[in-house]
Design a protein that fits this description.
Blueprint: E1 10-14, H1 19-30, E2 34-39, H2 43-53, E3 58-62, H3 68-82, E4 87-90, H4 106-134, E5 138-144, H5 157-179, E6 183-191, H6 204-208, H7 219-230, E7 241-244
Parallel strand pairs: 1-2, 1-4, 2-3, 4-5, 5-6, 6-7
Helix pairs in contact: 1-7, 3-4, 4-5
């Protein structure tokens, strides 16, 4: 197993204290990064992450990704603790609740959009400015979309819309930065079915039948692709989509 692929790098992982986000954090810490993890409600998970990895390696900041104040706080605490920002992983997100679109409330729609898409915009904006101010305008932004951002998810159209937005937002920002000579790369990662508590127990058997690999993914499967995208190994990967789904989209 390789180590030190992210040595001397500082990363922010939103929603980084459970599920896919914790898998990303574990891989980043293993590879030598200092990591700021955020969550809005799971404060116990954040404190547990600090304890598990050590306060010299991981800092927890409570954050609402859908607010400017939340991002101002995270960037300020990141720079105060670790001095710079190299990598942002926009991972925090919420799923749909299964409401048919014709019965969905505007509040439901807005909540998913605010966290999944507006949160990504606010994070990308904050990270670009921080990377320019503290890291010579160099860095990597990784937006965690979904296979549902590539193909429609019938039981959650609001989720698909938000994740499809993340995908195209990533493309557009990558082009904008590259064309202006700014050395910050932006890529999207599209997980398939990953073994987290988001998947209802009663749906597991049906979901497994749709996966050519025959099993769910693990959070670290997403963590490993994020290590690659956060490292200098991926210096020519920009504006691209990385699907990790056990063959579902093949």
């Amino acid at each position: 197993m390789m180590t030190d692929r992210l040595k001397d790098k500082v990363a922010i992982v939103t929603g980084g204290v459970a599920g896919i986000g914790l898998g990303i954090t574990e891989c980043f810490v293993r590879e030598g990064a200092k990591v700021v993890v955020t969550a809005n409600h799971n404060v116990k998970g954040g404190q547990a992450a600090e304890t598990k990895f050590g306060a010299d390696r991981v800092l927890f900041v409570q954050q609402d990704v859908a607010t400017e104040d939340g991002w101002d706080k995270v960037i300020k605490e990141t720079i105060a603790k670790f001095g710079k920002l190299d990598i942002l992983v926009n991972n925090a997100g919420v799923g749909g609740d299964g409401t048919p679109i014709e019965k969905m409330s505007l509040d439901n729609w807005n909540q998913v959009m605010n966290i999944n898409l507006t949160g990504n915009f606010l994070g990308v904006r904050a990270a670009i400015n921080a990377m320019q101010e503290t890291n010579h305008g160099h860095g990597s932004i990784i937006n965690v979309s979904s296979v549902a951002g590539l193909v429609g998810l019938p039981m959650a159209p609001e989720y698909s819309a938000s994740k499809g937005g993340t995908r195209m937002f990533s493309h557009a920002v990558a082009l904008s930065l590259a064309q202006r000579g700014i050395d910050i790369r932006v890529n999207s990662v599209h997980p398939g079915w990953i073994d987290t508590n988001i998947i209802p127990d009663q749906a597991r058997d049906a979901i497994l039948k749709t996966i050519p690999a025959g099993h769910l993914g693990e959070p670290k499967d997403i963590g490993e692709i994020c290590v690659y995208l956060g490292s200098e190994e991926s210096k020519y990967a920009n504006g691209a989509e990385f699907t990790v789904d056990g063959g579902v989209r093949a």
